[in-house]
Amino acid sequence: MLEVKEDTEGSPPSKGLSPVVPLSPKPKSPIELKKPSLDVIPVESASENRIGDWRNMRRIIAEDPEWSLATVPLLNELVIKHIVKNFENKSEVLKDLLTKDQKKVLAQISTDLPLKVTALLVDDEGFWERCCHARWELCDVSSFGNSWKRMYFERNLQQIIELFVPEASDSDELDDTVMLSANFIKKLDIRQLLPPVPQKSKGPDFDEISEAASDAGDDSESDHFNFGPVLKKLSFLEEFHVTYGVRDCGMNFEWSLFQFTARDCLQLSECIAALPNLKVFRLHRSKMDDDKVRVFISHILDHPGLIELDLSHNIIGDRGARAIGKFLNNHSKLVKLNLCNNQIRVAGAQAIAYALTKNNLLQYLNLRLNRMGDEGGQAITRALMKNRTLVEVNLSSNDLVEPTAAILNQVLSQNLVLRYLDLSCNRLGPDGGKQLQEGMEENKTILHIDLRLTEVGQEAEYCINQILRRNQEADREQRIKDSEEINAQYRKKTAEPQAAHRFQLPTTAILA
């Protein structure tokens, strides 16, 4: 019987023996056919090698305890972080970024960056809003044309000027700020001005002398901040308010802190005259007297753009009122004049009244809290019979009595332009109330009359209020009618149909 042996693969058959018949290979099953060869390392399935499966991951103790493989930042985020960190030294790279990346950078940069970096480069309102809220608690952007950038620059310059001490503060910071802010400032409201630091003399009784001088109000005058170098660079300035005084001085009160000197007046007048784009100027609570107002008016007689002048709460008398009347008679473009709380008497009221008969632009006049008396009140009211532009007049607290009310009777029956009249805190009396009532019965344009503390009587005041309601209702109906006519004309011009999102009513439209 032959012995059958299984020869190794590739070895030759032995001599003297019959050839070995190889056994037929056992057929492989389909499962075995799919198995990999012995020299291939099997790969674990994807379900067993998931990154998020913590059971199959090695434990790594990193130096950063917050590090995680699942939160690796994107390269874009790393670049933005680097730009934000070095923005002060490499700010010019902002212009090369995409819009979406610029917004990310501007949302993260610090609000403490110097103005020389951000003033001319950053226009994003979100960044300037963060700067405003970081610096001031109360931020009313509606008072600054709804622009956060304008608000920041105007309030920043205002604060620097209000804390500037002449001959002591560093002017380099002021000059740099003005240069960077000039294109963004349209309104400047200066609520205080600090005087120079007084030179203390070395005397044994200096304290007693200074206290006596302060009580007597005989302190030597000292000039305040000079606006000349600042205002001439603010070419877009349209509104300027200033008060020569110190806020919250406390126990350090001295009369010199509230002096508006002749040199201050001359410098300020020259600055206002050199601002052709200025429209509103307000100088209040600054002790402006007759001499100073005459100097001021002489410089602005031919001002091309001033439409509102506010000199309230000063000490302007009759001579100053004559200068203001001359200004109204000249080529002025004033629309609003406020002389509230001054010392204008009969002569000054007559000068202003004469100017009103010649002026054809002024619409608002405030003479409240003066000392015109009944004679001055009669002069003003007679001027209203000839003037055809004044819409609002305030004559409250001027010691007006019944004769002025008699002239107002004629004014109310003839003047078709006047809308608002304030006569409060005048002793018009019951007879004066009857005169006003008779005039109002023929008037259809007056919308408001203030008769508080005038002693006109309840009956007359009630009848006048009923007439005012009638006039107000008629005015409302007329405005609705005018609006409908304007809307009809607008629709005729738009022949082609428009999409609903593109259709816009005119600005004068009124929806009832």
UniProtKB/TrEMBL annotation:
Major subcellular site: cytoplasm
Q: Give GO cellular component annotations, separated by semicolons.
A: cytoskeleton
**Compositionally biased, Acidic residues: which spans?**
206-221
Chain intervals for the UniProt region annotation (Disordered): 1-32, 196-221
Quote any Pfam family the record assigns.
LRR_6
Q: Which UniProt keywords apply?
A: Cytoplasm, Cytoskeleton
Has the keyword Magnesium been applied to this entry?
no
Q: InterPro entries from the xrefs?
A: DRC5 (IPR052410), Leu-rich_rpt (IPR001611), LRR_dom_sf (IPR032675)
Q: Where is it localised?
A: Cytoplasm, Cytoskeleton
Protein name (database record): T-complex-associated testis-expressed protein 1
Q: Which organism is it from?
A: Lymnaea stagnalis
Q: What are the top taxonomic ranks of the organism?
A: Eukaryota, Metazoa, Spiralia, Lophotrochozoa, Mollusca
